[in-house]
What does this fold into?
Amino acid sequence: MPEQTIDVVVLGAGIVGVSAAFAARQRGMSVVLVDRREPGSETSYGNAGIISSSSVTPLNNPSLWKSLPKYLTNRHAALRWNPLWAARNASWIVRFLADASPSRLKPRADALRGLIGASGKLHREWIVQAGAGHRLRETGSLKAWRTDSVETAKQEQALLADYGIASELLDRQAISAIEPDIVPVYKVGLLHSESASVDSPGSVVKAYAQMFASAGGIIRPSEVTAIAPEGDGWRVSLSSGEISARHVVVALGPWSADLLRPLGYRVPLAVERGYHREFRPNPSRSLRRPIYDVDGCFFVTPMERGIRVSSGVELTDRDAPSSFAQIEQVVPLAREVVEFGDPVGEVWRGARPTLPDSLPMIGPAPRHRGLWLGFGNQHIGFTTGPATGAAIAAMIDGAPAPYDVAPFAPSRYI
Ligand SMILES: Cc1cc2nc3c(=O)[nH]c(=O)nc-3n(C[C@H](O)[C@H](O)[C@H](O)COP(=O)(O)OP(=O)(O)OC[C@H]3O[C@@H](n4cnc5c(N)ncnc54)[C@H](O)[C@@H]3O)c2cc1C
It folds into this structure.
């Protein structure tokens, strides 16, 4: 493919970038996908592998106010925060909290419902097409309470029902019926029965990237150093040369804001860091689906390599040294539920890219033609990557997006 004929360069081969690249290729465009690492090696590698049907309520919702006092202690497993980071990012925090008001819940939940619904369909189609269907488990995802929280679970069930999302309320016995090998510590469960999970999110993204390459897309391993307008299109500077194209898609996850600053865009993108550790499974005590332990504030997911325990949110600089306090706090709690053996590999750290309203940016950059933004998918980017990418490919093609993208317009912030 001669470089001057390239329609689209996609920067970043996480789930969002790979999806945008594949969807653009499906529409017949010539596409180059650039990443300094192998596809699916960063945030899209280390997540809990859930393709969620139910995450329509962003983390900054009205219930956050009630939890805030316990979070301020900076000892809670759900949230740790660096005071220096907080001082430097006070305006992001204020905007994030402002969106936790009751009036801001419904519009954002409506928006996420569209994105999540469209993504679930694409994942289920693509994972088979990519030859990775064996990685998909249609066993739902279980949210579980150790305390007597039937009313809380019922409220969540009612909210999901308003959005047409099915869930099942479970008592201790019903939980044991679907997860016979876990220790019966949970009194109440809500089975998100329309959610699915995968046993290796990184491998799924690699399979989608391979599917893109098989469809005639080009994967170029290189560091992206800058982007600049050039004639009717864009010049992308790489550590290994340059590419010119008519359109450029920034899908660099938690690194996305860096590249946009020289163009005059100050994107209020923060990161909610998180950790995971994997452990050798006990083959006679298996886990059928991801469980979110509400009281312990961790996810435990059966993965290809073992049992993956994932931690809550750490608010600090993206590249600050790791702090293992949260993951060390939750591993013993996970052992109370699932029997597993020694660790496999080291602790992994990742950074959920988050804008103050917890909605991603999906669409055109307001002051540059041919520049498209797809990032900020927070806690549910593995779920929402496919429809984020597909909507961008549709917009580049001048076609309607498969759901309402207006709430995700980058112009709301830049
Ligand atoms: C602990 C944890 C658990 C999670 N669990 C879930 C879950 O169960 N379900 C769910 O839906 N979501 C989950 N998420 C969120 C999800 O993982 C992210 O939202 C999603 O992976 C973001 O994808 P992305 O493509 O935007 O970014 P990434 O996957 O980070 O991709 C960005 C890519 O850009 C590349 N890049 C960056 N800078 C450059 C450069 N200068 N040059 C070249 N390449 C560059 C990187 O190498 C990387 O490959 C979780 C996140 C964490 C941290």
